[in-house]
Automatic annotation (TrEMBL):
GO terms for molecular function: 4 iron, 4 sulfur cluster binding; oxidoreductase activity; thiamine pyrophosphate binding. The keyword Cytoplasm does not apply. The keyword Electron transport applies. It comes from Robertmurraya kyonggiensis. This is Pyruvate synthase. Residues 496-653 form the Thiamine pyrophosphate enzyme TPP-binding domain. Keywords: 4Fe-4S, Electron transport, Iron, Iron-sulfur, Metal-binding, Oxidoreductase, Pyruvate, Transport.
Length: 764
């Protein structure tokens, strides 16, 4: 339930302004006012906006935070840890599988006692993939050694971000802090909030950055951080860390009291709503607790003494406060947006039960319900049902079903969805029109191709009905590539637009077998799949066509966060194709910068403004990186040059079936986020090739061949002729950005001349 305006303004000592913002906006505002030194980040829904807002503010010169875009969440955690080790103030935001990817780094930071603040915008963990909010990620944080605060409203997100840093840096704590709030509920829903007009108020409250510890900041005083320990020392280390965690509970109360005097807003250890005489109560985290308070009022009007208890801090777990709050409660339902599978109740249920066990006089009946998974809404009716369960247990004197899921429904066989399209395989995809032969003299492949119109009868691999944006170049590019692939395919799609828009349970647009795994592990996953296929086929346990081809589709930054997996797969030389569609950004999370984004390009995390003009560094040359692994075939292609792409697809299949790993990169358009007109899709791709930004070439058995030379064809155009078609790059054509444009042109020319040298000299 929202705080009333008079409650918001009561007791204020510092001047504050009223606004109407979301939790993510308020997290960014708090960070900007504190003016952290460093934010290492990687975009993941629904936390992505925090970095976006900070980048917009940076472009307007509203803070001095150094924003470092990592190659993945694991990298972002490393950036943050390294920065914190210098004594710098460090900030981050993440969600779900991104949090999981950085998980192994978190105990390193808490175990070496370096403070920082991370906003965990809670979201369901895959799999299957669901981008909406629950607490399955938060529960993995419980054993990381980080202090964990929880925020129910955007106002709390702002206030507790300010409190969090003061707690983290306190001499009795010196631990990193997680502030968790609900994805898409608190993170995106706008509410009336207040913030301090003068950021000096915030900075004075937080205080000076403490530097009287052992930081890696002074060459005159060298330190060793993270030295190996034996068991005795490690026990002492963890004991001290444990004591610091419990001290954080007391420090939270002190900081909360101090902040209340400054802001007029109180954040006790427990948010207790009408718990003073409650007979039945709900124990809920974050936004669900707010949704339940009106229901408490309704039950109170009926003479039922109901209440809601919600902690503002769960690490350390406020055991004594909970014991006191539940001393006279007859029946309690603990609702949790996550499960601890097989434990007969999720984590907090057992922690509440453990707390009550210490009070021998307590007779509270405890029920546990898992609810709201994957962002399933929690309405007033649901809160009423929870209260009714607690009331029923109170009347019976016991919980008939102590643990259960809430909101699950049985399936009905009669509702099974029948395929709309008859499955297609085998000969349907074998035209016999493409002939690939090996030239024994050159050790290269020759491809004999029919006119493209002859391949139009070949069925598409992806059915109509996908949810891509108008003008999206992904599926035109993929389908053209697949025209060159004969026979059956097994395809793995990493997370990205191509995956999200083609699979939405219980529907799929894929005509042949499709698997999914996350950005960071697609290539390794498919390598395991194909090796299992081959081994089972060798043993005679399955029948698989000899010409089956395994293809991993990646894009939307997949060759950033997934680069390690791809290189590992390439070095092992598994017989598969890694195909990257390059839309020059993380489009599936909202057009953030990727390492394939060219210099100067505007994205939602490389904004254009007073202090910056788009991305600050050049794009990653992924084909050259993959070619350095010595795989048999690497190529680039685009739908604008169809014959070239289909020919390369046929070669890719031959090498993947006979030699080993293939990598291909196809340029595709994204009108929505490139800010370009749909009708210019093919024109933009053709211009990218003709200005030498995206050269068409192949690296076959280590030898480079340019397959289309715009200079030789007299089609060479200036870089500006490509940039003018896209709203994300038009600012580069302004006179004040001549330096960036010149740098861009010089880098493209340097790469082109190097490519020509490789083309002319097989040893390069």
């Amino acid at each position: 339930m929202a705080l009333k305006e008079k409650e918001l303004t009561a007791g204020m000592e510092a001047e504050q302004l009223m606004t109407f913002e979301s939790g993510n906006e308020m997290a960014a505002m708090a960070a900007a006012q504190i003016n952290y030194h460093i934010m290492g980040y990687f975009p993941i829904t629904p936390s992505t906006e925090v970095a976006q807002y900070l980048d917009q503010m940076k472009a307007r010169r509203e803070h001095d935070i150094k924003l470092i875009a990592a190659d993945g969440e694991h990298g972002s955690a490393g950036i943050c840890y390294g920065a914190a080790a210098t004594g710098a103030r460090v900030f981050n935001a993440t969600s779900a599988n991104g949090f999981m990817y950085m998980l192994e780094q978190l105990p390193v930071q808490s175990g070496t006692r370096f403070p920082m603040v991370m906003n965990l915008v809670t979201r369901s963990i895959s799999g299957p993939l669901d981008i909406r909010g629950d607490h399955s990620d938060l529960y993995f944080a419980l054993n990381t050694g980080w202090v964990i605060l929880t925020a129910r409203t955007p106002q709390a997100v702002y206030d507790m971000n300010i409190m969090a840093l003061k707690i983290a840096e306190h001499s009795k704590v010196r631990l990193p802090v997680i502030l968790a709030y609900d994805g898409f509920f608190t993170s995106h829903q706008k509410r009336k909030v207040q913030y301090f007009k003068d950021r000096k108020i915030v900075q004075d409250f937080v205080g000076e950055c403490p530097l009287d510890y052992q930081f890696a900041r002074d060459p005159k005083n060298p330190v060793t951080i993270g030295a190996h320990m034996n068991g005795d020392d490690l026990t002492n280390n963890h004991y001290q860390q444990s004591e610091a965690m419990y001290a954080a509970g007391k420090v939270f109360e002190e900081v909360s009291e101090e902040y209340a005097k400054l802001s007029g807003r109180e954040y006790p250890v427990l948010d207790l709503y009408k718990m003073e005489d409650a007979d039945v109560a709900l124990f809920l985290l974050n936004s669900a607790a707010e949704s339940s308070k009106d229901v408490v009022d309704k039950f109170r009007e009926q003479g039922i003494k109901a209440g809601v208890i919600s902690p503002n801090i769960i690490r350390p777990f406020p055991a004594e406060a909970i014991r006191k709050a539940l001393k006279n409660v007859k029946s309690l339902l603990v609702g949790e947006r996550a499960d601890s599978y097989g434990a007969n109740g999720p984590n907090l249920t057992h922690e509440v039960k453990s707390v009550l066990q210490e009070d021998k006089e307590n007779q509270t009946i405890v029920l546990s319900r898992v609810f709201g998974l994957g962002g399933k809404d929690f309405y007033a009716d649901d809160a009423e049902n929870f209260f009714q369960m607690a009331i029923d247990a109170q009347e019976k004197g016991y919980a008939e079903k102590p643990f259960d899921y809430y909101g699950h429904v049985p399936g009905h066989p009669e509702n099974v969805i029948q395929p709309v399209i008859t499955p297609q395989h085998g000969d349907v995809y074998r035209t016999g029109l493409i002939q690939v032969t090996e030239d024994e003299e050159t050790n290269k492949l020759k491809v004999k191709m029919p006119p493209l119109r002859a391949l139009t009868s070949k069925p598409k691999r992806i059915a109509s009905g996908h949810g891509a944006c108008p003008g999206c170049g992904i599926f035109g590019g993929l389908e053209l590539f697949f025209k060159g692939i004969e026979g059956d395919v097994v395809v793995l799609f990493q997370t990205g637009c191509a995956y999200v828009t083609t699979t939405s349970y219980p529907h799929t647009s894929h005509k042949q077998t499709m698997m999914h795994n996350l950005f960071q592990n697609g290539a390794a996953t498919l390598s395991g799949t194909l090796e299992a296929f081959f081994e089972q086929k060798r043993r005679g346990e399955i029948e698989v066509a000899d010409d089956a081809t395994f293809v991993m589709i990646t894009g939307d930054g997949g060759m950033d966060i997934g680069m390690g997996s791809a290189i590992g797969t390439a070095l092992r030389n598994h017989k598969l194709i890694i195909l990257e569609y390059d839309n020059e950004g993380y489009m599936n999370t909202g057009s953030q910068m990727s390492y394939s984004t060219p210099i100067g390009n505007m994205t939602s995390t490389t904004n254009v403004g007073k202090s910056q003009q788009g991305k600050a560094f050049h794009h990653k040359d992924t084909p050259q990186i993959m070619a350095a692994t010595n795989i048999p075939y690497v190529f680039t292609g685009t739908e604008a040059f169809p014959q070239d792409l289909v020919k390369k697809a046929a070669k890719a299949q031959w090498y993947a079936q006979n030699v080993g790993t293939v990598y291909g990169k196809i340029l595709i358009t994204c009108p929505l986020n490139w800010k370009s007109e749909d009708r210019y899709g093919n024109t933009i791709m053709e211009a990218a090739v003709n200005c030498n930004f995206f050269p068409l070439y192949e690296v076959e058995q280590g030898e480079t061949t340019i397959t289309y030379d715009p200079e030789a064809k007299k089609k060479k155009i200036p870089l500006s002729d490509w940039l003018k078609y896209m709203g994300k790059t038009k600012h580069l054509l302004k006179e004040e950005n001549n330096t960036i444009l010149s740098d861009f042109e010089e880098e493209i020319e340097r790469r082109w001349q190097r490519l020509k040298a490789q083309h002319e000299n097989p040893l390069l």
